[in-house]
Design goal:
Number of helices: 13
CATH superfamily of the largest domain: Alpha/Beta hydrolase fold, catalytic domain
Structural class: alpha/beta
Shape: globular
Oligomer: single chain
Low-confidence stretches: 1-36, 382-387
CATH class of the largest domain: Alpha Beta
Largest sheet: 8 strands, mixed
Helix content: 25-40%
Number of domains: 2
CATH architecture of the largest domain: 3-Layer(aba) Sandwich
Order of helices and strands: EEEEHHEEEHEHEHEHHHHHHEHEEEH
Length: about 375
């Protein structure tokens, strides 16, 4: 089935075919029948993010950020792990939650830098998605599932190949269901970059808009250059950097036999900032000239205007990983496919509400699940998934 795009290009919207049945992306219904272009209200079906009410006992961005890390529970929904062998001889580990119903729409979750599907924000989101009748699936980036990957590379902020490959396999497995995706921080940057590039190719080449029907991105560092400079300024930025850097260096040591011939090993272990690590490891391993070239090419911000699927952005003005001026307000105003929840407070993947630490609530995960349930047909709403 072909539909007319927002600029007159012909785009194929049929995503899966089996036994004579198609799953048709809901995107064409969002187009303005007057021919004047897409309408924001129709695209997002009138959805409005609930206001974020920051916990009064967590003043400041850093307390929100740290409380979000340490107060989030890690409920175990009975995940089932699958190892998918990649075409380049490596592997990806995906964790599947129990389906809330036989035909639940799947949602792929992408974690942040040095995260995994075991992190609290992923597990809380899984619980919220399950409660909304959606099937949560967590993707562990290479080397993040508890076992080093096999080849001389890792993952990075702009690497979309593994995401596209995994989404393609999910489309084959669930050909008649809509597919959602959620990305946190680095994972959100990867997701948005993919969606933007897919939107450009849909216009230029007449290809499908995306393998995803609706998406959410949380606490994304839209401008990696600005985000890196923010982390290098001030004592708290250096504290966050040491946390990430320690994990990255440990993973590098676990792959020393593969990496030492390719890198300046002494310079790698002298790294004291993420930029220094990316200069001597991420950039050369993944084909970039240097760290700044990696950041410029991998930032998702320049791609936001090209996104052509319903996408919710959740980001706080006080996110310590990104200066407020780098939040993409202009792109949101200009692109009706984007819906923004940009509260003034919330930190980085914080967004903690509630009367006290004994009863925290996590706004971002709840809003992400509510939006996708609103956008993906056939979700239903069974009983909540218990820890």
């Amino acid at each position: 089935m072909n539909g007319k795009s927002w600029n007159g290009a012909r785009i194929r919207h049929t995503v899966g075919r089996k036994s004579g049945k198609d799953y048709i992306s809901p995107m064409p219904a969002a187009l303005d029948p007057s021919g004047m272009g897409p309408d924001r209200t129709r695209i997002h079906r009138g959805h409005t993010p609930r206001p974020f009410r920051p916990a009064s006992w967590l003043p400041g961005a850093h307390l929100q950020t740290l409380a979000g890390k340490f107060l989030r529970p890690t409920p175990d929904p009975g995940l089932r792990r699958e190892r998918w062998e990649t075409p380049d001889g490596d592997f990806l580990d995906l964790d599947f939650a129990p389906p809330p119903r036989p035909d639940a729409p799947p949602v792929l979750i992408l974690h942040g830098l040095e995260g995994s599907t075991g992190r609290g924000y992923v597990r809380v989101l899984m619980r919220e998605l399950h409660h909304q009748g959606l099937l949560p699936i967590g993707l562990n980036f290479r080397s993040c599932s508890g076992e080093p990957n096999r080849v001389a590379r890792f993952y990075h902020s702009g690497e979309t190949g593994d995401l596209i490959w995994a989404l393609g396999r999910l489309r084959e497995r669930f050909p008649h269901r809509p597919l959602g995706a959620v990305g946190f921080s680095l994972g959100g940057n990867v997701l948005l970059r993919h969606l933007g590039i897919s939107g450009i190719r849909a216009i230029d080449e007449g290809t499908p808009v995306s393998l995803v029907d609706a998406a959410v991105a949380i606490s994304v560092p839209f401008d990696l250059v600005a985000g890196t400079r923010a982390l290098e300024a001030g004592p708290m930025g250096r504290l966050y950097t040491r946390y990430f850097l320690r994990s990255l260096l440990e993973k590098s040591k676990a792959k020393e036999a593969l990496l030492r011939p390719l890198l300046d090993w002494d310079a790698l272990h002298r790294a004291r900032t993420l930029r220094e690590f990316d200069e001597v490891a991420t950039a050369p391993l993944h084909g970039f000239d240097d760290a700044w070239n990696y950041y410029r090419q991998s930032s998702s911000g320049p791609h936001l205007r090209s996104i052509r699927i319903p996408t919710l952005l959740l980001h706080s003005d006080d996110d310590p990983f990104l200066p407020p001026r780098s939040a993409p307000r202009d792109a949101v105003r200009e692109n009706p496919w984007l819906l923004a929840g940009f509260p003034r407070r919330g930190g980085h993947v914080g967004f903690v509400e509630g009367p006290g630490p004994w009863a925290p609530r996590f706004w971002a995960e709840a809003e992400a699940a509510r939006y996708l349930a609103h956008r993906l047909p056939g979700s239903g709403k069974p009983n909540a998934l218990e820890p």
